[in-house]
Amino acid sequence: MHFTRESVFVGAIRAFFACFAAIIGIFAAIFCIMLAMGAFSTSPIVPEKAEYIVGYDANGQRTLQAPNTPVILCIDIVGMVGLGDLSYEKIQASLDDTQESLHDRVKGLLLHVSTPGGLAYDAACIYDALNEYKAKMKIPVYVYVEDLCASAGVYIASAADKINTSPYTIYGNIGVRMGPMFNYVGTMDKLGVQALTLSEGKDKDALNPFRTWKPDEGDFVKPSMDAEYNRFVDTVVAARPKVTKSLLINTYGAKIFTGAEAEAAGLIDDGNSTYKKTLKELLAASGIQEGQTYQVFKVRAPHTFFGDLQANNSLLKGKVTHTLDLGPNYNPELSGKVLFLYQPETTPAP
Questions:
Q1: Catalytic entry in 151, 166, 273, 286
Q2: 141 in Cβ contact with 307 (< 8 Å)
Q3: Which of 69, 71, 198, 223 could bond to 105 as cystine, CB 3.0-4.6 Å?
Q4: In a domain, 157, yes or no
């Protein structure tokens, strides 16, 4: 009898695990089918909307208020401008979504900035988008910088009505760069390797890393970089009344400043501020009275599950990428593009 009871128990356990495995298999199959449909489908889809996360108010409270409560939006400009959620397309989509879903509830916009800079194109487009949004919504835009606002970050911040930083902020580095670019001719000579590139048109083969560079190599790019730099300078000068073009070009250049130094230089308004202090100032500028109920929403750029999965999985893209780590502020996607980027040169440790 003991043997029979043990057999029934073992059989029940075996049946349970078999059933469990079957269920897991079914879900795995469904997931794979959905994954394949998301990866290979070319059918038009309705874009995802921006998400709103309840943020802290000036008193450090996070409470979801009534649907008609005035709103202060907070958008994080954190990371490399032009990549991920800081692409112009993502920021523009977020701004458009707030107009569609929140309408006239929006009373002010706070940009929380921590960036070394990034792509010149995206910085300029984000700046234009913020100015257009500010004019259309008739709201003030304030910037608060916790630690770093360099290059493209300064360009974007120029759209704000007021710029505050902490005392520990690094601010500035107004300039344009491209590169680094490498030449492998010396290495190829040592290895006995030759390369042939066929091209037609003047400078079509410019900056080819597999041949010796000419003395004027890359000169064709300089007019474009000069134009970007002049636009950068004009943008900052227009936003900061105390900063002249001559002062910015000949004295400040691409220097970096502490919060207090940036304030003294006229590049920002308050170099000894905090997030809560900046938020309170924005509330007053937005017409929200002390004691009046309001809602702070942090805006998260639109995302899709399959889009994120495909973007972060090289196998779904059908390729495997090998990269060379050149430092925390260098990304292969920046290669060959005009940058507003603070990228201190570092020497690898021996």
A1: 151
A2: no
A3: 71
A4: yes
b/e per residue 118-136 (b: at least 16 CB within 10 A): bbbbbbbbbbebbeebbee
Alpha-carbon torsion (314, 317, 321, 327), positive or negative = negative
**pTM, 2 dp:** 0.78
Mean pLDDT to the nearest integer, 248-255: 96
Q: Does the active-site annotation cover 151? A: yes
CATH of the domain at 129: 3.90.226.10
Section 95-110 average pLDDT: 94
Strands (E) across 99-186 are located at 106-119, 141-150, 162-165, 170-172
Q: Is 204 designated active site? A: yes
Check residue 127 and give its pLDDT.
98
In whole angstroms, give the CA distance from residue 326 to residue 178: 14
From the candidates 136, 204, 222, 245, which is the catalytic residue? 204
Q: Are 120 and 140 in contact (CB under 8 A)?
A: no
- pLDDT for residue 199: 79
With contact defined as beta carbons under 8 Å apart, do 339 and 176 qualify?
A: yes
Residue owning tokens 């002249």? 244
169 in the same domain as 71: yes
